[in-house]
Task: structure prediction
Amino acid sequence: MFTPQHIQQFNSIETPFYYYNTALLQNTISAIKAAAPKNYTIHYALKANAHPTLLNIFKHAGFGADCVSGNEVKRAIECNFAPSHIVFAGVGKSDNEINYALDNNIFCFNVESIHELQIINQLAALKNKTANIALRINPNVDAYTHKYITTGLEENKFGINPYEFDTVLSELKKLNNLHLIGLHFHIGSQIQDLTPFKNLCLRVNDINKWFIQKGYLLPHINLGGGLGINYSQPDTEAIVDFESYFNVFKQFLELQPQQHVHFELGRCIVGQCGSLISRVLYIKNGINTNFAILDAGMTELIRPALYQAFHKIENISANCASPVSHLPSSIIHLKYDVVGPICESSDCFGKAVSLPETKRGHLIAIRSAGAYGEVMSSRYNLRNEVKSVF
Ligand code: LLP
Result:
């Protein structure tokens, strides 16, 4: 929700830029802390947004860091996350990345294949070290989300499949520089219906029992992230119902008292606090379609082009200019295809979007862009690096 003060602030800044509402972020963090049982550890997933200002907030909140590249591990360390609170996942960790993480004594590698186990063991042996590892398991649980962000099915490249478990355990007996400390799962992202998380718990219970029967009572069970946000109504549901989310795990997860639960949350923490702010450059009226051409494009926010993702689009100049006494129906609304300046037809934020009559120079906010927005921006067309404002 933007006020005339925001417009005043934004008018003095060159667009496009990301605006982050840190007060909302703090409230979101408080809601997580109030809802999560004390023995659950939350790792913030840097892949959602790795801006140092935000990372400092998460560090102070006491979250750990979930990283998927050597540079994310480096960023977490630079932002003073203790290495003992850093987990490192990813199907294709390079030798350099593994070495960097070993040198910094991170808490745990989430390992995605038998081959990767062998390589981490080899590299750790060269350093005379023992690496803590968790097995990233592909639980074959459908997250019912966009196919590009589903990860927990057999057809996905992620994780070790249950039919490989016997081989993994016999292989681990030979790998003396690895210490198996846990199991790791992640079924996908932008999951709003909680049923897939219940299904995940039931699978985890079975898999955990299997390992215990084989003599492995593993102290750490990491359930990944994936909790979705409401892209249609960013103001009415600015903070996710964390209580219901954690209740699923409290209710359905059956662990041993010695086992500690971890999460890797990204989008549901940081998604709603960010908006991409841009300005209308041109209005182009066609026979059937009006275009509002912005100075932000798929280079700043690629989600609509890549996943056909919906983001609420608001003309905040027009919204804030209309006197409070105006009934909404008295403001003329028109339909616009809201597009960017990039030479691609997929560079479109929304089709037939109903907006108050929109003019050159108006500020447009593309909401719920705090997660997977700035981090996925690119320099395509040699565009400037996108800025951020707090
Ligand atoms: N843990 C693992 C192993 C992951 O792969 C992910 C996300 C997370 C945690 C955090 O998931 P979250 O809580 O944010 O859902 N670029 C896509 C999303 C890709 C998600 C990748 N993995 C998007 O814009 O929707």
Notes: The chain is about 30% helix and 20% strand. Residues 22-271 form a domain with the TIM Barrel fold (CATH 3.20.20.10). Residues 45, 47-48, 66, 89, 149, 151, 186, 189-190, 224-227, 264-268, 303, 307, 371-372 surround LLP (CB under 6 Å). The mean pLDDT is 95.
